[in-house]
Amino acid sequence: MKLNINEYIDHTLLKRDAVSADLDKIIEEAIKHEFKTICIHPIWIEYSKPKLKDTNVKITTVLGFPYGTQTTESKVFEAKDAIKKGADELDFVSAVSKIHEKDDKYLVNELKLIRKSTKGKIIKLILETGLLTKDEIKYISKLAVDANWDFIKTSTGIGTTGAKIEDVKIMKEIAGNKVQIKASGGVRSYDEAVKMIKAGATRIGTSNGVDIIEGRISKSDY
Hints:
alpha/beta; 9 helices; 8 strands; about 40% helix
């Protein structure tokens, strides 16, 4: 029996040159297929919010995107601004350089401050697993769990390898049932999505949501 994959999908549009017609298309698709959220850049939150009124589709936005190199203060400001504009869920990019250095002081402070500033909202930490060792994936996953984040997420899907089954399993090993996992980047088919879910993912980030639920294999990604 097939899973209701639509309920797992953050229908994603993160192309830098996307225009309002592109937003209209993914909004229409998300409503039609009852996806969990649309995942969009912050500049499109206020445009999209009224179009999703009276639907169950929420808005996810990305912050510190795509490299995570903004200051903690900048990320906190982005979070408050996105919430004010109507975002329901917030996906933050982690500071990979600080993960490489295992800078506990910096990372713990950032995770705590962002968590504090987003009270009542679902927040996801993008690890960018393609740039990390297995030990580093475990390290930052543990910090996110300790800081009471809602999700840890594999990838931005931009410029690195995307979601891998082995990485999702590592994240699940650390997260247990305390923190959920979002597999994002390169998930293009129903079978790939199911494998991610079986490995521990409870959310799938993809621009190929329609292809996935309709059984097509897409070569595109966001």
